[in-house]
Amino acid sequence: MDQGTKTIMDLFKSAILKKYKIAFDHEIKQGEVHKKNVDKTIDFLFSDMCVTIRQLPKMSSDNKDQLIQTAKRQLAPIKETVFQILVNKGVQII
Questions:
Q1: Burial tier of 38 (Cβ tally within 10 Å: 0-12, 13-18, 19+)
Q2: Which tens digit of pLDDT belongs to each residue from 20-63?
Q3: Residue 6: CB atoms within 10 Å
Q4: Cβ contact 89:49 at 8 Å
Q5: Three-state SS for 64?
Q6: What span, in angstroms and rounded, lies between the C-alpha atoms of 11 and 45?
Q7: What is the DSSP code string of 11-63?
Q8: HSE-CB for 67 with a 13 A CA cutoff
Q9: Which secondary structure element, helix H or strand E, spans residue 75, and what is its range?
Q10: Which residues face 92 on adjacent strands?
Q11: How many other C-beta atoms lie within 10 A of the C-beta of residue 39?
Q12: What is the pTM of this model?
């Protein structure tokens, strides 16, 4: 796939996942969040980041793909860290 097609796919993923970020933003104010909303919010932010990376000028497609794959491998540890931070801040995960 070319970068344009990948960008469009990431934009589409972001649009679908945005509802979870909206739900997360609402729930966090209440002091409790659903695990799924945390997971999907991070996925939304990842997709949004991919769009930004793919639009970077003066960077090869291979470098963009490599950077995105490196970030993708870090999603699970990032999610665990976010859960820990939320719990430490007194937010209940349901």
A1: buried
A2: 999 999 999 999 999 999 999 999 999 999 999 999 999 999 99
A3: 18
A4: no
A5: helix
A6: 11
A7: HHHHHHHHHHHHHHHHHHHHTEE-HHHHHHHHHHHHHHHHHHHHT-TT--HHH
A8: 16
A9: helix 75-88
A10: 32
A11: 18
A12: 0.84
Amino acid at 11: L
Average pLDDT, the chain: 92
Q: 């209940």: which residue's tokens? A: 92
d(C-alpha 42, C-alpha 75), whole Å: 8
Residues in the chain, total? 94
The amino acid at 54: R
Asked if residue 46 lies in contact with residue 30, where contact means CB atoms within 8 angstroms, the answer is: no
Backbone φ and ψ for 51, nearest 5 degrees, come out as: -60, -45
**Pick from 40, 34, 36: which is nearest to 21 by CA?**
40
